[in-house]
């Protein structure tokens, strides 16, 4: 996506900007498009963070795991206070990806195998006063897992995953 100048009355442009800043935006950039108490229903880290800081934390986690991340938006529709984007996310896993259970417990850790991926997603945004108050998504995680070589895992990769998960769990207790 190219840089977007956001008109505060244009909810679709605000949501496009939100996707754009996932790859390189600062907390200040997130504050321009998200309400102070915005809820990201995709964030299961602990402690839960709302608002621009929470969304920036999610973006930082994705940035640490995937390089060359991008979202190609195919369609944007709005109905009342809901804006929906259909997109393809792509990138390369160059770092470790961590999945969390609701409540913040580490569920799984996926060390990088250096592979690329391209999967479809639908992002839902609830708007409030020209900013995003809530976000949730439907993603093709199964296709992503297969493309990144997480599924089916080889025995050697299972060992790497178990070691990485134990390390992440120990780090979370500190």
TrEMBL record:
Record Pfam families: SnoaL
Cross-referenced InterPro entries: Cyclase_SnoaL-like, NTF2-like_dom_sf
Superkingdom of source: Bacteria
Gene3D superfamilies documented for this protein: 3.10.450.50
PANTHER family linked: ESTER CYCLASE, POLYKETIDE CYCLASE SNOAL-LIKE DOMAIN
Full protein name: Ester cyclase
Organism this protein belongs to: Actinomycetospora rhizophila
